[in-house]
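Comment on both lines for my students:
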Amino acid sequence: MREPGELGLASLGRIALVLFSLLLVGTLLAARWPGGDLLSREVAMGVYGLLSLQRPIGTGRSRGLKLLSNSREQPPASNDTGSVPPFPPIFPLPHHWENGSMTVNLVPDFKFEIASSSKDLLSLAARYRKICFPRKARWAPNRQDRSTALTKLQLVVTSPDHVLSPHTDESYTLLLPAGGKGEGGRVAVLEASTQFGAMRGLETFSQLLHFDFDLSAYRVLHAPWQVKDKPRFPHRELLVDSARHFLPVRVLKDLLSSLSFAKINVLHWHLADTQSFPMQSRNNPELSRRGSFSSDETYSEDDVAEIVEWGRMRGVRVLPEIDMPGHAASWCRGYPKICPSPSCLEPLSPVMPTPLTPFASDDTFTVVERLMGDVVSSFPEPLLHLGGDEVNTSCWEASESIKGWMKQNNLTTGDAFKLFLLRAHAMAAKFHRRPVVWDEVWDVVGANLSKDVIIQQWRWGGNHVNRTKNVTSNGYQLIWMVDPDWYLDSLSTGWEKIHTTDLCEGLTEEECERVIGGGGGMWGETVDASDLEQTVWPRMAALAEVLWSPAPTGKRSHELAWSLNVTRSRLKAFRCLLLQRGVRAAPVDNAVARTAPSGPGGCRDA
């Protein structure tokens, strides 16, 4: 037991920390930017990181941030500090930001000003007004100075283009002043080339807002802000699987909305598999009629159109996947002639699917071509995923007719597989679609593949770096989704593993440029509408940050921003935001994903 008056090591440590913090802040104030308006991102993050390392993990709040102030007049103080988000309060981290140390209020009738008659832009502004201001603000004349508060956000979009594509410009610049008597100090400005860049900027703006319950006012902390942002990778996806369990339209729309909050821009929709074929095909009606779980668990053409448009309005493309020739047993129920036998399963796994017959015949490719036509008419997306994984070619050897055809043409099963793939890819090109395939296709076809084909890597194979390098060094583009690191159905894979992934590990700069992005795999064997969101979130947010934010630069401040300690606090704050917006995000600290909180507490405690 410590004697009365004796100082323990912990107390000495706290005293030393306070003295060091005061010295550091004094240095910062002396090195302020000209005019005292902005502290550089590097300086601000350096202070935050040094101070945050001294606090317990997961408190979700930096006690050191209040020290970052200058001598300029501050808005009236408030006691509502318990919900102040960790710094920086933007998820995913932007490409570049600078901030100051002021707090600025927003007037209760804060406006979005748009110099455009675009219906899309007007709809975007109306939607984000509800997102930004879910609570009613009131003015307290005795505690707030309206003459220095922010009055509006000007949205400046230079291109009227409303088409969402793999090449869409998502960059934006956001300027948030610290308030002042002049008009320039009271108007925030968001500039973007496209409405989708403006959408990303509005999401950032929404995350900078803080509602003060004492003042009943919205405020921006650490103003002024200057954010210049763009994604690191153009392709940032979540794969969902509605073939293993049907996902209702409402569930998919809610999921699309949540993806936009993390700046994810692709929903990879795995539409059919061994278990079911839920999408209606106008020209192959028996596929869903006999292949779906039930008539109620089917997507009509109108359903698909609604989902695609909902995604476009949220900056999320919908990329359809029709897996072939494997994972196709559900096709056989409606069109048995195109399959050797629905019961022909490979001995290695009792759940391996039956491939489509490899014949270049009218039966097989008539169905495939008609289906592609239906998919192309429903999905404007220029990419078309054709699968190609886990093909059970042994059942071709078990079929006398197929075996005879291969012998007659001097083909192995590998040759037959290759012919099927190349014909399917040529068919996609005829429909003006660029094929995406799983990485087994690279193993089978290799450099005979058109350079237009994109490889999606899912297999670890002992060394994912070698696999990635093999594809990219041969001039092919690649999407990264390695199992189990980025498979969200792997419930033991934590956000830390996801967040520390380097997609360009071991690659040259030229090879890295061919990695167009990556995604999380939410396979549906053990997921349905009841637990989809809490399995996806918040781990998907960690993945989103890897894909959107610039790689750590080696600077001390940037390394701190990427540190697991700081990221954990920021991720918990983002989870709170998701919960407030109605997204069922599981606790961040879960050892096993989607489990419930271990006990009572605030959203940042879990």
Remarks:
- The radius of gyration is 27 Å.
